[in-house]
Structures
1.
Amino acid sequence: MYNTELPQDIPTRGPAKPVPYLISGVLLIIAIVFPLIVPMYARATPRVGGLPFFYWYQMLWVPIDAVLIGICYALTSREDRRRREVLKRPAAGSADGGSDDGGMSHGGGRGGGRGGGGTTDGGAGGGTTDGGAVR
């Protein structure tokens, strides 16, 4: 049938920098913990628009949490992109200059169900590694 065994020791991301994850963790802790400290806002005054402090303080945390979570998402997404790009750059001592195709030219590519995977000439392999254009 199909070989479902994954190749071993092939990294998908480079090493992580802990700072973006640490900042995201602190922001998420703030977003979760502060609304849970009820004694801090369990009072009626000051009122805003007729609403007691207890209610408007909780409603105030909704947009604040949205902003904090958005910042966390941006930080972790940027770090993830950086870690993926590390693997796309050629190694300093490589003779062939590396490959910038994300590993697609090694047989797995866009090939069809028959043949040996991707070919560069669109021939019997069933697929191509030249952007998908079949000649």
Note: The CA atoms of residues 11 and 87 lie 8 Å apart.
2.
Amino acid sequence: MKISIYLTLFSFGSWGLVAGFIPTAVFDIFWGMFGPWLVGLITLIIVKQAYDKDPESVTALMMKSFLGKMIFYGVYITLLILFAALQKVQFIISFTVYFIVLHIIEALYFQAIFKPKKS
């Protein structure tokens, strides 16, 4: 799936680029990127597979994945803020930016695959 490769290249490439400019925040930016990237990648793969098998099952799957994402992100952020030696502001900024950008990419991809095919 090409989108998975592009998503990974974008995430790790932008992390490397930003980390080069802010070397003191390499790990903070990485952990801010990693959670949204992992969740986005898994979501893309699972939804695409479900859509290919049974397009009508995607809505229920998206509802369940939304709940799963809320729980994962809550635990992920809480654990990192409480137990990791991170600069919290850099982590939260990184997390927020990657969360928004990767969800926009995900939405555009889903819009493209769900678009009715012209006959």
Note: Residues 70 and 76 are 10 Å apart (CA to CA).
